[in-house]
Amino acid sequence: MADATSKPEADDHPVRKERRRLARIRVVYRIARVLLRRDDRRDEGLARVRNISDGGMKLELGLAIDLNDVLRVELSPEVVLQGQVVWINGNDCGLRFEEPVDSLRVLAESAREARGHMARPPRLKTMIPAAVYSEIGLRAATVSDVSQAGMKLEHDGGFVPGLRVKVTMCSGVERRGTVRWVNGRLAGVLLAEPFSIEDLGSVRRLGHPD
User: Fold this and answer.
1) What is the CATH number assigned to the segment(s) 10-115?
2) What pLDDT, on the 0 to 100 scale, is given for residue 112?
3) What are the pLDDT digits (tens) for 33-92?
4) Which residues are bridge partners to 150 per DSSP?
5) For labelling, which of 27, 34, 94, 107 has a CA lying 20 to 30 Å from the CA of 131?
6) What dotted CATH number matches 124-207?
7) Rounded distance, CA 207 to CA 2, Å?
8) Topology agreement, domain 10-115 and domain 124-207
9) Which SS3 state, helix, strand or coil, does residue 6 take?
10) Structural contact between residues 35 and 44, judged by C-beta atoms closer than 8 angstroms
């Protein structure tokens, strides 16, 4: 029988328990696609994953969010997490996962995908009207997706690989680039000036800045 004055087991000591909890928080620097799907607001953007644990993660993001919003976080095409916003501090927020995860396995799997031969940077789905200036004149187009280094255009069929273009979105955001591929009425443009994470923090803002 334990003596009434004996100390609690080390594993039950609150300080040690807190140290173990913090040890499971893995500091990372990953870029992720984050989606907000709410009845009155739908948006997506790129975000920085600052740390992750089995129970949640810290994000630095450009989306306009509220407490209790549910966010979908795509670390890679196959590694997708979902959690509820439990705190907000400026551009930082904390998510609590709907179900605990094995954070070490999550990071390993997403890193393996990022190193794969078919890996692509995160892309955001958009439908932003744009004017495209080039040597063949002014053409109307739609920016149908965008990454930091490139964009996909839906156009009238007049673009060819190698064409240098200036794309001006309806919001006034401009980028110069070169058409790298054409498939029917779709064209891929490699940008001369990449977008920053902040530029792509919100598709809603990219198409309709305040």
Assistant:
1) 2.40.10.220
2) 83
3) 999 998 888 999 999 999 999 999 999 999 999 999 999 999 988 889 999 999 999 999
4) 190
5) 34
6) 2.40.10.220
7) 68
8) yes
9) coil
10) yes
Cβ atoms of residues 50 and 92 within 8 Å: yes
* Three-class SS of the chain: CCCCCCCCCHHHCHHHHHHHHHHCCEEEEEEEEEEEEECCEEEEEEEEEEEECCCEEEEEECCCCCCCCEEEEECCCCCEEEEEEEEEECCEEEEEECCCCCHHHHHHHHHHHHHCCCCCCCCEEEEEEEEEEECCEEEEEEEEEECCCEEEEECCCCCCCCCEEEEEECCCCEEEEEEEEEECCEEEEEECCCCCCCCCCCHHHHHCCC
Position 4 pLDDT exceeds 70: no
Choose among 6, 45, 50: nearest CA to 25: 50
Q: Over 70: is that where the pLDDT of 22 sits? A: no
Domain map of the chain by residue range? 10-115, 124-207
Six-digit token string for 41: 């607001």
Q: Given CA atoms 162, 164, 170, 171 in this order, what sign does their dihedral have? A: positive
Cα of 86 vs its chain's centroid, Å:
19
